[in-house]
């Protein structure tokens, strides 16, 4: 069996230990066979050699909060775009994402099982996916884009994309079952209001704790599926954590009690610091952002940073996630620089984007670190991200991308 040997690299293995110079990684089929240095790992004579040219080897990066079937447009353009066009757009976004060095994603809404299967079957180049199908939302809450004019711009439902609106325990129970039937790997719920919805506010609480407990019961206890919660207001976050929800997305108005509960329950936090910043940047250059989204982003952006800083200092488990789709796909890795701005070291930001993100997705035994036996998801960067985390933001600095032992990008010789 042909072995691929990656040599002449400095390895940042995702575990948080110091970088290892003159590292060698052997890949066989889709798995990592051996990891070491040029002094400890013999290279088979018939191995295919990938010379890293003294660059930096990392695990494939992981974004735990994306929307591959979404990218914000102005309302007129959205209304005039043919329905099937979105699938071709998703294919392009998937390709863009893997070219940035992201080899696994957790889709937080609107990608269906067919998009995931297209990647798995090789019809489309893209990162490995978990899909949540359609987020659960209350009538009039975040996820219900009914406008005061009476025009409803909520994403349409179709076979494979059940309606996410539900109210009351029994509607919630049935809707979770419909998402699982449609192929959800994770169930997504809007536990609070949000920035991008027209009729609510991020601090508004959606769903009772009892309704959230039904979601966990149906998903986790019956199918072993985790529940992720869009949670921005403190009370909604606390309801979600008490209900047993696995991860809190955004966490804008986290308070001390919420942090204590998250530590007690081992709940993950996915900050998405880039999302409100990107909304405000887009407002300056385009007409894609609704006025209410702009105003709410201005209101929350500084509070958001302080909340995530407080969570980091408290020791809450933080997994990297971006909310790509609220902004253009491909700039996801700006999130790591923002994580460093709230106090993380570059190494901690990388671990949040590899090891911790993999654990958040339940894939800690398969991806996230460079270890023998794990899937061969590897990237090479032409600079030291420990010295400058921002180097990851420009996809041109990502010179090599491997997923499942297959090469998706190789500009090492350029």
TrEMBL record:
UniProt superkingdom: Bacteria
Amidohydrolase-related domain span: 56-407
Organism: Alkalicoccobacillus plakortidis
Protein name: Aryldialkylphosphatase
Gene3D superfamilies: Metal-dependent hydrolases, Urease, subunit C, domain 1
GO MF terms, alphabetically ordered: hydrolase activity, acting on carbon-nitrogen (but not peptide) bonds
One Pfam family named in its UniProt record: Amidohydro_1
């Amino acid at each position: 069996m042909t072995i691929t040997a990656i040599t002449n690299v400095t390895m940042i293995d995702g575990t948080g230990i110091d970088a290892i110079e003159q590292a060698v990684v052997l890949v066989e089929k889709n798995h990592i066979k051996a990891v070491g240095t040029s002094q400890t790992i013999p290279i088979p004579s018939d191995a295919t050699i990938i010379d890293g040219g003294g660059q930096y080897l990392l695990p494939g990066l992981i974004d735990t909060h994306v929307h591959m079937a979404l990218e914000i447009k102005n309302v007129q353009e959205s209304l005039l775009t043919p329905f099937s066009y979105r699938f071709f757009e998703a294919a392009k976004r998937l390709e863009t994402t893997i070219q940035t060095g992201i080899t696994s994603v957790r889709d937080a809404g609107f990608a269906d099982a067919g998009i995931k299967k297209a990647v798995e079957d090789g019809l489309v180049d893209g990162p490995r996916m978990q899909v949540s199908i359609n987020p659960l939302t209350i009538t009039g809450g975040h996820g219900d884009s009914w406008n005061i004019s009476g025009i409803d711009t909520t994403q349409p439902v179709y076979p494979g994309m059940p309606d996410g609106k539900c109210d009351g325990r029994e509607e919630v129970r049935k809707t979770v079952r419909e998402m699982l039937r449609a192929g959800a790997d994770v169930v997504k719920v809007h536990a609070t209001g949000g920035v991008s919805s027209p009729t609510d506010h991020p601090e508004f609480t959606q769903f009772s704790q009892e309704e959230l407990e039904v979601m966990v019961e149906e998903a986790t206890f019956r199918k072993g599926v985790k529940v992720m919660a869009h949670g921005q207001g403190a009370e909604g976050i606390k309801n979600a954590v008490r209900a047993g929800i696995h991860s809190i997305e955004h966490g804008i108005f986290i308070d001390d009690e919420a942090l204590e509960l998250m530590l007690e329950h081992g709940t993950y936090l996915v900050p998405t610091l880039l999302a409100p910043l990107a909304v405000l940047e887009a407002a300056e250059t385009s007409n894609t952002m609704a006025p209410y989204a702009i105003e709410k982003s201005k209101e929350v952006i500084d509070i958001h940073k302080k909340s995530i800083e407080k969570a980091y200092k408290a020791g809450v488990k933080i997994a990297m996630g971006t909310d790509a789709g609220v902004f253009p796909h491909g700039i996801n890795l700006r999130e790591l620089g923002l994580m460093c701005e709230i106090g993380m070291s570059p190494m901690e930001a990388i671990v949040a984007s590899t090891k911790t993100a993999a654990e958040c997705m339940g894939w800690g035994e398969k991806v996230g670190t460079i270890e023998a036996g794990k899937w061969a998801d590897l990237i090479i960067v032409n600079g030291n991200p420990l010295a400058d985390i921002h180097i990851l933001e420009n996809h041109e600095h990502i010179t090599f991308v491997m997923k499942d032992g297959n090469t998706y990008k190789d500009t090492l010789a350029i």
